[in-house]
Design goal:
Blueprint (H helix, E strand, L loop, with lengths): L1 H27 L4 H5 L6 H10 L6 H13 L13 H36 L4 H15 L2 H15 L12 E3 L2 E3 L4 H34 L2 H8 L4 H30 L2 H6 L5 H10 L3 H29 L1 H6 L4
Helix pairs in contact: 1-13, 5-6, 5-8, 5-10, 5-13, 6-8, 7-8, 8-10, 9-10, 10-13, 12-13
Amino acid sequence: MISFALRRLLQSVLVLFVMSALVFAGVYAIGDPVAILINPQADQAEIAAATRALGLDQPLWLQYWNFIIGAFAGDLGKSFSANVPAVHLILQRMPATLELALTATVIAVAFGIPLGLVAGLKPVSWIGRTIMAGSILGFSLPTFWVGLMLIMVFSVWLGWLPPTGRGETVEVFGVPVSFLTRDGLLHLLMPALNLALFKFSLLIRLTRAGTREALSQDYVRFARAKGLSMERVVRIHVLKNIMIPIVTVTALEFGSLIAFAIVTETIFAWPGMGKLLIDSINVLDRPVIVAYLLIILLLFVFLNLVVDLAYAVLDPRVRISGHGT
């Protein structure tokens, strides 16, 4: 088990290193931030001075080397526009994004698993067909369009929910959260629902497929033949066997919720990391862009490592074969 964990950890470090080089080269090959940040009337001397101040006069390989040295010390560069550490800006916005992603995950799990279970138990009934049709819509409808429709219906027409912003927050252990206040919760509902739509549909289909497969297994038939009620069979035998892939997918998809919350945060003006990324791209704030992408990459690597280790604990064959998820 220890050798498996070390092997997966080394693989994760290698992936992180390679991806950091690709991200750094890709971002730093796009555009010239000096042309955006300084006065358009500046002369060549001022442009050269600004370029040196930002360290952009150095070769790309040297910029990357300095970045790696700083990264080992926890320094991912200083924002060109805000003149503060990029990590500081991202950590300021991270609680808002984590709160949005966690709320979206709770919504997706709370509704997706029960509805998928119903669809799996009653696949040919009208309710099962309706649930599956709804899941197809969840996959098909663009996130930005759904977000605009939510604002149109619940904010413009009905006036029930505020259209943008995070609302009132309170601090819990120094971290600002909005779901503990009425105003913050009202601001949170629409963006969380919008972000949860795709994952909600995914969990419906995953739970339905797992339920259909479990119901065809011999141990379920044997339990039914013993006279156990359908409710007990589902609770004891079906759910126990389908929850492992559901938990795995949910954990991995949580990372994608954080990474791809950009559209939702932009539509609802949610002050999270995704909104910060869009603002940084508009001014070519390279350190913030690179720091954001690397933090998201680190999150994905960490989640995959945790899932691999969890599989190794649950299934010894994973350790023997040396393959993870």
